[in-house]
Write a structure and sequence with these properties.
Layout (H helix, E strand, L loop, with lengths): L23 E7 L6 E6 L6 E5 L3 E6 L4 E2 L4 H4 L4 E2 L4 E6 L5 E6 L4 E5 L5 E5 L7 E6 L5 E6 L4 E5 L5 E5 L6 E6 L5 E6 L4 E5 L5 E5 L13 E7 L2 E9 L3 E6 L4 E6 L9 E6 L5 E6 L3 E6 L10 E2 L7 E4 L5 E5 L4 E6 L5
Antiparallel strand pairs: 1-29, 2-3, 3-4, 4-5, 4-6, 7-8, 8-9, 9-10, 11-12, 12-13, 13-14, 15-16, 16-17, 17-18, 19-20, 20-21, 21-22, 23-24, 24-25, 25-26, 27-28, 28-29
Length: 340
């Protein structure tokens, strides 16, 4: 049952807002000394923000005020979800009942949000750090990628590995299912986006988004994200001044780039706005930029969202709210004045 984000009372589900660039600081989650966040994710229904910390804790927050979610009593009682090593990736199930955490030691666990109890363990998911996890759209499978350069699909009910995808020559940085679950998409430090057949694990397309930049080394491809309302379209972020719109057939359809005077910057992380109108991306110096997916043009406004360099970010599924993390023990949360 939905909770009021301020008072813990029942409420109507969060309503979608018109897509806008977040333009003000909303709240900050603060970590104790010697701790810092390594990953974060918003719940698919929008009630919570989860963080995974360097000391192994998975915590669930009220993102409106930057405090632990009061309706999850196990957190206030000190019974927290915990991995043996740093939590390096997080993802919520589409039902909103479960959260999956991947860790530096290659293990994956799935947790029940309401009780904090462990639902499933994958103790040998990867031989090295788990860099990304996500649920299939029917919540029956978990897709994971790691620093062992391998993608795997795990059965949530059986706990078994169902598929393995090999071909990347460096660490996986992100992975996603297509909406119909027929494709798996992955990005890597090897500078490529790969599009795979989910059933056969065959690689259908290999895309090198930075290959058109003559004279430059090929940048890391840091993430791939579906565009809401456009199931055949994906946003691909690279550690360069460019972001790409790529089709499910591996065609680069559009390049989103900073204005010429900002071409010396590179993007560190990106998300797609809730209704698929904009790409929101953070460049070095922790400046938030926006691009129209339709026109490819950069928005005029931009905002500095943190003092230290951003490592990653997450976007709310229905509100114009984004959260960021770095190594300075803080998670700044920004929102649009019109939607928060």
């Amino acid at each position: 049952m939905p909770f009021d984000l301020f008072y813990g009372k029942t409420m109507q589900p969060l309503r979608p807002a018109e897509d806008r660039l977040p333009d003000r600081h909303l709240a900050t989650v603060k970590f104790p000394k010697k701790q810092h966040p390594n990953s974060l994710a918003f719940s698919t229904k929008g009630e919570y923000l989860a963080t995974g910390s360097a000391d192994g804790f998975v915590e669930i927050w009220n993102f409106m005020i930057g405090k632990l979610a009061a309706d999850l009593r196990y957190q206030s009682q000190g019974s927290l979800m915990m991995m043996e090593e740093a939590v390096t990736s997080l993802s919520f199930s589409h039902s909103g009942d479960l959260v999956c955490s991947g860790a530096k030691d290659g293990k994956i666990r799935v947790w029940k949000i309401k009780s904090g109890s462990c639902y499933k363990r994958f103790l040998a998911a990867h031989s090295k750090e788990v860099s990304c996890v996500c649920f299939s759209h029917d919540d029956t499978q978990i897709l994971s990628g790691g620093y062992d350069n391998i993608l795997r699909i795990h059965g949530l009910k059986s706990g078994n590995m169902l598929k393995e995808f090999r071909g990347h020559s460096a660490a996986i940085t992100s992975a996603a299912f297509s909406q119909d679950m027929g494709l798996v998409l992955s990005t890597s430090e090897d500078g490529t986006l790969r599009i795979w057949d989910a059933s056969s694990a065959a690689c259908l397309h290999t895309v090198t988004p930075g290959a058109d930049k003559n004279g430059l080394s090929i940048p890391t491809v840091s993430s791939v994200m579906p565009v809401p309302g456009s199931p055949e379209t994906f946003v691909v972020c690279t550690k360069s001044p460019s972001i790409y719109i790529v089709s499910s057939s591996g065609i680069v359809e559009k390049t989103l780039a900073l204005k010429e005077e900002l071409q010396n910057k590179e993007f560190l992380a990106a998300v797609v706005s809730p209704q698929g109108k904009y790409v929101l991306a953070v460049s070095d110096k922790s400046v938030l930029h926006g691009f129209s997916i339709e026109t490819g043009q950069a928005l005029d406004e931009c905002h500095k969202v943190a003092d230290s360099e951003i490592v990653g970010m997450a976007g709310h599924p229905s509100l114009n709210v984004v959260a960021f993390f770095s190594n300075d023990r803080r998670v700044p949360i920004w929102a649009s004045l019109a939607s928060a």
